[in-house]
Amino acid sequence: MILRHQKIGGPGLIVEIDESKFGRRKYHRGHRVEGQWVFGGVERETGRCFLVPVEKRDKDTLLTIIKEWILPGTLIISDWKSYNCLKDEGYSHLTVNHSIEFKNPENGAHTNNVEGMWRHAKASMTQYSRKKHFYAGYLAKYMFLKVCRSSGLNPLVEFFKLAAQVYDPNGQTLDT
């Protein structure tokens, strides 16, 4: 089981990145959504992912997250040309323009995997009591269960193993 995040991607690997707003339509009408913006990515070859709640979706904020979560040498695919600065940071970058097509006919770029991740992550959250200050926990739970399922591990057993590393019932101090 992974206790800390591990960077995804690397030379020869593809990571799709995107932002999505988690929340509900105001008064259950229209398109406006109140909630939390989340930035994330999926490694196409393995399905490993990251999800980070963000307050700002500006270039500096997202580039910092990319550097924290994605290894240099990765081919990054997005639906936003503003990430063109990625080439200067040691990444390759392809884009798809969703207002024209879902798959770039010139280079085959698409973001179907990250879009699917959004659907599953949002479906995993309860419909009620989505508090903005709990989103990091909601996202951590989703990623924890995703790792357990993809590794064939029992989530409850893994949770207890991790809890035992933080809390020792014999009263001994544990390093965290």
From TrEMBL:
UniProt xrefs under InterPro entries: IS1016-like_transposase (IPR053164), Tnp_ISXO2-like (IPR024445)
ISXO2-like transposase domain segment(s): 7-147
Cross-referenced Pfam families: DDE_Tnp_IS1595 (PF12762)
PANTHER family from the UniProt entry: DDE_TNP_IS1595 DOMAIN-CONTAINING PROTEIN, SI:DKEY-17M8.2
NCBIfam families linked to this entry: transpos_IS1595 (NF033547)
Protein name per its UniProtKB record: ISXO2-like transposase domain-containing protein
Species whose genome carries this gene: Macrosiphum euphorbiae (potato aphid)
Organism placement in taxonomy: Eukaryota, Metazoa, Ecdysozoa, Arthropoda, Hexapoda
